[in-house]
Intraflagellar transport 20
Amino acid sequence: MVKDILGEEGLHFDELNKLWVLDSEVTQQTTELKEECKNFVDKTGQFQKTVGGLTELVDKLAKKKMKAGHSGSHL
């Protein structure tokens, strides 16, 4: 009965009888979301590195092509 009253007020006990403001399910979902966000940020960082490398490669190829085009026109 006391747990029901506390639950209505947003207070919950875990399996060790610790008092929590959030329900244990909400706490679990929050932890999972935190991990998913970390993974997303890590993958986004990897993607940015890959795109940066690709951009550098395209720039180098464009410069080589420009040099080849200019040197051929002097003949």
DSSP finds two helices and two strands in the chain. The chain has a mean pLDDT of 83.
